[in-house]
Structures are given as C-alpha cells and as structure tokens.
C-alpha cells in the first residue's frame, strides 16, 4: 500500500498520517473506494459515527465527500492525535468531533441522536465487532431512520449473529477485508 490519502471529494489527494506503532490496520484505497461507491450520493448531508477511528481515514473520506458531521471515537491517545492532525491537514475539522474514549462504554449511554452510518473497524481477532454490535442493537436510537451499520473485519472473524433490532443485508469482500452491512429490522 502506498501512503494513506483521501481518494475523493473536496480533500481528494491529501495525504494522511498513520498512527504511530502497529495497532491500527488502515483500510486500503480499493476497499474505501468500493465502500463509498456503495454509499454513493447518500453520504452527502449524512451523519457518520467512526468507531475505533484509528487514522480517521474513513470518516475523513465521508467528510470530504459531503457528510454533514462525523464523530470519531478511539481510546488510543495516539490515534486521537492522528485523527485531529489529519482533520487539520484536510481542512475538515469544522464538521468533526473527536472523542477519546472506550467505544463500548460510550455506546452504553443514551445517544444524542441517531447516525445515518455507523462504521465499526475494531482491532482484529478480539471479537470486538460483535461486542460493539450488541449495544447498537440494544439501543437502536444510535441509528437514524434508514441508517446502516458497516463492520470492517477479516473474513475469518465473520459469523452470522442473531440480533433483535438489526439485520444483516449485505457483505462485500476485498482481499483480507470483509465489509458487513446491517440495517434496522422492518
């Protein structure tokens, strides 16, 4: 992979910093481009929650493509610093909020309003993606009407989940990355 960068929208071509150390696994350009092709024009004006934000690459891409606001959450102070630096470098800080905290604890609290998209990209092979879906499923107010939860995991981590308020409606695999899409049950 070449360096991290924004691939579309107002900040297209801007380089992004990586988080120091080896704890994050940034999304590839191919996967990110495919994700935003799926979201299409619906990202314009949308609210976006980037859990386990890492470099902030996905949420920054959403802002660059017209999302109204993005909330980034990460517990690692190096990731929070990297997200803030990347927002400043792309001139997208105005529509973003960055919180340092435990995503699971934050999701256990009542939301301030639903999000159109919740992006879940936790550290791999720890089962965190399932633990993250549980509080979203148990508190559907996190998700706005017609909202989606998108999980980024390694394909070997996947298992079908029995959820009460969310249902899986699509999967897309890009090499060693699997995107799993959920929406509210009808």
What would your notes on this structure say?
With 186 residues, the chain is an alpha/beta fold. The protein has helices spanning 29-39, 57-64, 77-90, 103-108, 128-138, and strands at 47-51, 69-74, 96-100, 115-120, 143-153, 166-174, 177-184. The chain has one domain: Vaccinia Virus protein VP39 (Rossmann fold, 3-Layer(aba) Sandwich), CATH 3.40.50.150. It has a seven-stranded mixed β-sheet with strand order 3-2-1-4-5-7-6, sandwiched between helices. Helix 5 links the parallel strand 4 (115-120) and strand 5 (143-153).
Percent in strands: 25-35%
Across the major sheet, the strand order is 3-2-1-4-5-7-6
Stretches with pLDDT under 50, minimum 5 residues = none
Q: Please give the largest β-sheet.
A: 7 strands, mixed
Quickly give the structural class. Answer: alpha/beta
Silhouette: globular
Helix content: 25-40%
Distance between the termini: 40 Å
Provide the succession of SSEs.
Answer: HEHEHEHEHEEE
Radius of gyration: 15 Å
Report mean pLDDT, rounded to a whole number.
Answer: 93
**Helix tally?**
5
CATH superfamily: Vaccinia Virus protein VP39
Oligomeric state of this protein: single chain
Tally the beta strands: 7
- Reading off the top of the CATH hierarchy, the class is best stated as Alpha Beta
């Amino acid at each position: 992979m070449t360096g991290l960068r924004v691939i579309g929208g107002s900040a297209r071509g801007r380089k992004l910093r990586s988080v120091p150390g080896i704890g994050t696994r940034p999304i590839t350009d191919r996967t990110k481009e495919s994700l935003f092709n799926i979201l299409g024009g619906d990202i314009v004006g949308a609210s976006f929650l980037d859990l386990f934000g890492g470099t902030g690459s996905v949420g920054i891409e959403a802002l660059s493509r017209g999302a109204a606001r993005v909330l980034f959450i990460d517990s690692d102070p190096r990731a929070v610093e990297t997200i803030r630096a990347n927002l400043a470098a792309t001139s997208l800080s105005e529509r973003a909020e960055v919180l340092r905290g435990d995503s699971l604890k934050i999701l256990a609290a009542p939301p301030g309003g639903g999000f159109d998209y919740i992006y879940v990209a936790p550290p791999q092979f720890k089962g965190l993606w399932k633990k993250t879906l549980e509080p979203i499923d148990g508190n559907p107010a996190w998700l706005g009407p017609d909202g989606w939860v998108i999980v980024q995991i390694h394909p070997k981590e996947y298992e079908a989940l029995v959820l009460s308020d969310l249902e899986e409606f699509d999967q897309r695999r890009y090499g060693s990355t699997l995107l799993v899409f959920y929406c509210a049950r009808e």
